[in-house]
Amino acid sequence: MRIGWAITGAGHLLDESVAVMEELSKDNKITILLSNAGEEVLNMYGLFERVAAITGGYYKELALESDQSFSYPISGRFSLGKYDLLIVSPTTSNTVAKIVHGISDTLVTNSVAQAGKGGVKTIVIPVDMEKGDVETILPSKLDLESCADCDECEASKSCPQEAIIAKQEIDLLKCVGCGDCQDSCPFNAIKAGKLITIHMREIDIENTHKLVLMEDIDVLKHPNEIAEFISNII
Ligand SMILES: Cc1cc2nc3c(=O)[nH]c(=O)nc-3n(C[C@H](O)[C@H](O)[C@H](O)COP(=O)(O)O)c2cc1C
After folding, report:
1. Using a 6 Å cutoff on CB, does residue 139 contact ligand 1?
2. Which residues make beta-bridge pairs with 198?
3. Mean pLDDT score across all residues of the chain
4. Residue nearest to atom 21 of ligand 1 (CA)
5. 11 CB near ligand 1 (under 6 Å)
6. Nearest CA to ligand 1 atom 3
7. Segment 73-110, tens digit of pLDDT
């Protein structure tokens, strides 16, 4: 199959999405499309290189929003029906809101719109699915309570990206999630993978409900459901 897989800027379900994408890439050609925020967040969670490693070759490109300028020419492939499927996972509340309102001003939302025009089935996996609280995972974080305020910050010295503002915080826009800082700090003050609870907003849940009603879009709850969905449509 020829698949387009779009990643938006959500940390929730990101690791799970990348794992399923890696698995699917063994038997399918996958073009990966990253929103600007998707690219940043993949880096923050140390997942960008894994995603890039899947790509290489015709219809196996890594398409970055910043490279596609304002008109997103690569999305034209969807309106021409060149793909069998478009998957958007994980999908931020921002991208869901745009899709349900017919807005197509990003690489990802434009690809969804063009897929609709080209009769390409689209699977969307929104991060804001149901009312209530969900646990989500944070990228690297400097815990100031554990920080011993060393004269020379070993974590900061070890960072190849110079992303750590010692005794303050990590500049996530520079961080590539390599984990060197966690290994270097003798006080274990930098941790990745901390779980936090976030509350789902009503408007985001409402938008997800609208998404379910849209033609040509199938909403799944988890990336682990994708393989079965595909086997049912082949
Ligand atoms: C570390 C990090 C994690 C994020 N996780 C989420 C998330 O799980 N869900 C979400 O809706 N937005 C999340 N965001 C915010 C989005 O990246 C932001 O709204 C962005 O503008 C979305 O753009 P996009 O929809 O074009 O990808 C996160 C931001 C950061 C910095």
Report:
1. yes
2. 134
3. 96
4. 37
5. yes
6. 11
7. 999 999 999 999 999 999 999 999 999 999 999 999 99
Domain that holds residue 161: 140-192
Whether the CB of 10 sits within 6 Å of ligand 1: yes
For the segment 6-17, the average pLDDT, to the nearest whole number, is 97
Residue 234 has pLDDT above 90, yes or no: no
Could you write out the DSSP letters of every residue in 124-135? EEES--SSSEEE
CA distances from 166 to 82, 140, 143, 174 (A): 49, 14, 11, 14
Distance CA 128, CA 159 (A): 33
Whether 101 and 23 map to the same domain: the answer is yes
**Residue 44 alpha carbon, nearest atom of ligand 1:** 1
Same domain, yes or no: 81 and 31: yes
Asked if the structure places residue 36 within a domain, the reply is yes
pLDDT of residue 88: 98
Q: What is the average pLDDT across 37-45?
A: 97
CA of 50 to the centre of ligand 1 (A): 19
**Cα–Cα distance for residue pair 29/210, rounded to 1 Å:** 30
Above 90 in pLDDT, residue 233? no
Give a yes or no: residue 87 inside a domain.
Answer: yes
